[in-house]
Amino acid sequence: MRNISFSDEEQSDILPKTATLWWRTPQDFDENGHLKVDISDLSKLTPRLKILREMERLAFISTEGLEDLRHKLITYRAGDFWLPVGGVKKEDMEIAPVITIVLVGLCASGKSSLVNYMYSVLGRSGLIPFAQTSSGNSHYTTMFLEEHNVLRSMRSGFCVYDTRGLETNDMIEGLDEVSTWMTRGVRHNQPCFRHDDYNNNNKITSKRYTKRNVDCAIIVADLSEINKAFISGDLKDVVALKSLFNNSSIRKSNENPLLILTHGDTISAEERINSRLKICEFLGIPETTGVYDVACLTEQGILPEESDPITAFALTEAVYRSLMQSDRNHQPKKKLKDWIVLFLTWILCCIGAFFAILANFFSKCSQPHNKKLKY
Ligand SMILES: Nc1nc2c(ncn2[C@@H]2O[C@H](COP(=O)(O)OP(=O)(O)OP(=O)(O)O)[C@@H](O)[C@H]2O)c(=O)[nH]1
Ligand SMILES: [Mg+2]
């Protein structure tokens, strides 16, 4: 996230030798891995060049930056990134002990795989899949909200929630569910059953788990599906994604939600860059701020981790950014005066409702009399 300037010589020494520098296409880079055009004049950067520059930035700082950011996440305590505003002290802010990030997106966009990748990069254990994903012929879908402590630490200052994906054909119900999570909070093991589920009569939530207010939502989207949609002209999926992106409940402030693009490894570099450009344009967001290309699996179908520090760094930076976003949005604690005002407002509403019912009742009682008068 820090601004850096880098020369090509410096860069080739620092870049991880094994990294998959997929964006370095012959169209834009020479055989030494140098950009063919001058990118020093920022005002002349095209959106495509901005993406290439962003990827070079991630590559440049990934090796050293990954450890640095990981350390910041390990030592992070809720509210650490909060900056004093409006003369309110930190102790007067409503800051939950654990910051809650939810991953939302369409079905099979890669939310559970992203959780596993987080465990692998941040918790340093890539052997066991911690969140069940669909694989091979299994069409497994996450059916319950799952809380994950991806750092695998008792003192972690944040947790990540894996959620059930939204169906393109039933966005209204899906968006309603997302609004409920965002406004009423989430709980581990909370069911996410939809009306057409085969067996949805087991809607019991275990109240033993702590309810958490959601601080930030990250949208996970499948870049290969986005690419398909723009090529075929069937924009159903990207329209659904836009409705999720613009949903007022996930915008805790004026900031755009973070967007993580998965499945980039399954399309060509050209398609990967172009579909990122197109979806950012479609959503009306900058192509490099708050958007991360994180392929959760390699071509061999395994978690990337060591082989791809750039993707690992992109993921870590996305989590870091989501914590910064969360800490910017805390509200001051309610004081006694606020509770009294709230109580009085509630009483006034009740009185108003009571008189409205009375008025309605008496107007109904007086109707036959009115009719008689008319005749
Ligand atoms: N090649 C590739 N495959 C991926 C990537 N991310 C996820 N997958 C695969 O995509 C399929 C769906 O991934 P999941 O993680 O189960 O998706 P989900 O969003 O949790 O799905 P729901 O729980 O149904 O909403 C699985 O077969 C994953 O292995 C990626 O970046 N690259
Ligand atoms: Mg899932």
TrEMBL record:
The keyword Membrane applies. The keyword Transmembrane applies. SUPFAM superfamilies: P-loop containing nucleoside triphosphate hydrolases. InterPro entries: P-loop_NTPase. Gene3D superfamilies: P-loop containing nucleotide triphosphate hydrolases (3.40.50.300). Keywords: Membrane, Transmembrane, Transmembrane helix. The chain crosses the membrane at residues 339-362. This is ATP binding protein.
